[in-house]
Write a structure and sequence with these properties.
The chain is mostly helical. It has helices spanning 2-13, 15-53, 58-78, 114-151. The protein has one domain. Helices cover 68% and strands 0% of the residues.
Amino acid sequence: MSDDLDEIVDNLREPTSWIRVLFMLGFVAVLYLVIAPIVLVLAIVQAMFSLLTGESNYNLRRFGKAMAEYVQQILHYLSFNSHDKPFPFADFPDLGEDEQNDSDESGNSEEATPAARKAPRKAAKKTTAKKKSAAKKKTKSEGADKKADDAKPSADAPESD
């Protein structure tokens, strides 16, 4: 029992353990006080892009992916799954151009430029707009025809003098 107690005391006197605990506290503070608000703003801005343009912003998606990788590095360090300290003691997760080939949520490849990815969607919107416009014109012309028919005396209706 005395050997176990001596080992615990030796571990408590080990400066590397205390340094790691201090780093862990620092990373927890960074995680909640810095990264959480950034992710919240990122989500709000991305939602606004989606509402206004109909699709998400490519650069914000990449930044969000880098932030997710950074949070993963912090969690690995906090849970002792890694002894490597995350950024700023290591490089910030870099999502190079080779990683942009991942599939997005719709299963489309992201190899094309953002403008090229947007082109089919715009064409589909134009086609839909044309169909709606044609349907509106058809409805108006049918309504005008019906009004014209109502204005004409019917052959079956008796004429009144």
